[in-house]
Amino acid sequence: MDTHKTKIALITGITGQDGAYLAEFLLKKGYIVHGLKRRSSLFNTDRIDHLYQDPHASKRNFILHYGDLTDSSNLIRIIQEVQPDEIYNLAAQSHVKVSFDTPEYTANADGIGALRILDAVRLLGLVKKTRIYQASTSELYGLVQEVPQSERTPFYPRSPYAVAKLYGYWITVNYREAYDMFACNGILFNHESPVRGETFVTRKITRAVAKIALGLQEKLFLGNLSAQRDWGHAKDYVEAMWLILQQQQPEDYVIATGVTTTVRDFVRMAFAEVGIEIEFSGKDTFEKGVIIDRDEEILNRLNIPVEHIKLGQTVVKVDPQYFRPTEVDLLIGDPSKAKNKLGWIPKYTLPMLVKEMVDNDLQLMRKEEYLKKGGFTILNYFE
Ligand code: NDP
Ligand code: GDR
């Protein structure tokens, strides 16, 4: 038997944050990587453009297919064509707040989408060949039942997103038990990176910090500053996805750092990276963050004009439009099972993650600064 046969992976959601990191990771491991991308009116492959291969080339190990998790016949056709050894189902309407505006679509893509993948594998007779990873989430825990949250903690979802993902979780367990499939849930806590979507809170903060430092934006408007999240780095988390599918037995795993931090403290840490010290005062909707000190050595090193950083200036304000109808107050994961069984150890700490994100956004915003100096209009999106 040839034990070195090249493995084939299919990644749904390949254009997203995790899809991009996972594709890179699997290509380095020697996989042939197929990805599902949606048709859009503009190019939507920014995060994977560095992996792109000319479709006319005779040999390729990175191949994209148009598709959508809401379209069964398309998924069946692609899975039949690709005959994957591993499917990573990462595609989803992944924004919790947006799921309150688009609950039915979110249920379709995030809940029934998982079923469509599992059932395609079953109908095509690939149950013994294809292993499936389902992107489950710490949002399943929702209203706090116990801390830290582990594989045994009861679920209490608090958004249409989380309810849809609850279906995805259980249908994965059910297909594993009913049809003896190698199908697993990774219950991943929040993970971020320089390519995190711009409307998730960490990236929104690091982009704003860079813009404020360069004088391109005045204020950052945020919602619930007291929410606590267990933030890790996406690079570490995609490795865990792969490890989950390499085990003898299909099981579900919590992937987390075990450290939790408030949004407020994330803001403080991000501003500190560019030499700005923030103090918060006021309560609830009246809470604000004001510059109380600046570190001129850091500002000089980063080439940030000191006159942009005005002591006493309010740079953070609460805007209730970012509150959620039902919130998840506290997430902190217990990754013991992943550490013991998978040997998974994250390499990044939160300070390392914050630094990498702020550095990257500072570099990106330099381009905007250059355009502004050239007389071009800079657009500020406050989403
Ligand atoms: P992103 O939002 O960055 O990426 C989502 C991906 O799904 C994009 O490629 C998007 O395509 C695609 N997509 C959305 N809807 C559909 C659809 N109907 N059909 C096909 N593709 C679709 O998410 P992340 O990379 O951060 O997360 C990956 C997965 O992990 C998601 O399922 C998310 O819910 C889950 N998760 C994420 C966590 C995190 O902290 N990042 C934590 C726990 C779970 P397009 O680029 O065209 O929009
Ligand atoms: P989350 O991530 O909802 O945990 O879902 P997000 O970054 O959107 O919110 C984290 C916390 O920050 C609070 N918050 C704000 N959030 C956003 N987006 N914008 C704001 O202005 C703002 N102000 C405060 C939120 O209320 C929340 O408490 C992410 C997604 O990646 C999901 O797909 C994934 O399943 C979970 O993480 C684990």
Automatic annotation (TrEMBL):
UniProt source species: Sphingobacterium chuzhouense
Purpose: Catalyzes the conversion of GDP-D-mannose to GDP-4-dehydro-6-deoxy-D-mannose.
GO molecular function per UniProt:
GDP-mannose 4,6-dehydratase activity
Report which reactions are catalysed by this protein. Answer: GDP-alpha-D-mannose = GDP-4-dehydro-alpha-D-rhamnose + H2O
Span of domain NAD(P)-binding? 10-357
User: Pfam families given for it?
Assistant: GDP_Man_Dehyd
What is the protein's given name?
Answer: GDP-mannose 4,6-dehydratase
Please give the SUPFAM superfamilies that the UniProt record associates with this protein: NAD(P)-binding Rossmann-fold domains
Give yes or no: UniProt keyword Lyase. yes
The UniProt transmembrane annotation reads: none
- Keyword Manganese carried by entry: no
Which EC number(s) are documented for this chain? 4.2.1.47
- Where does the UniProt annotation place the signal sequence? none
What family is this protein classified in? Belongs to the NAD(P)-dependent epimerase/dehydratase family. GDP-mannose 4,6-dehydratase subfamily.
* Key words, A-Z: Lyase, NADP
Q: What class of enzyme is it?
A: lyase
Give the superkingdom in one word: Bacteria
NCBIfam families given for it? gmd (TIGR01472)
List the cofactors. NADP(+)
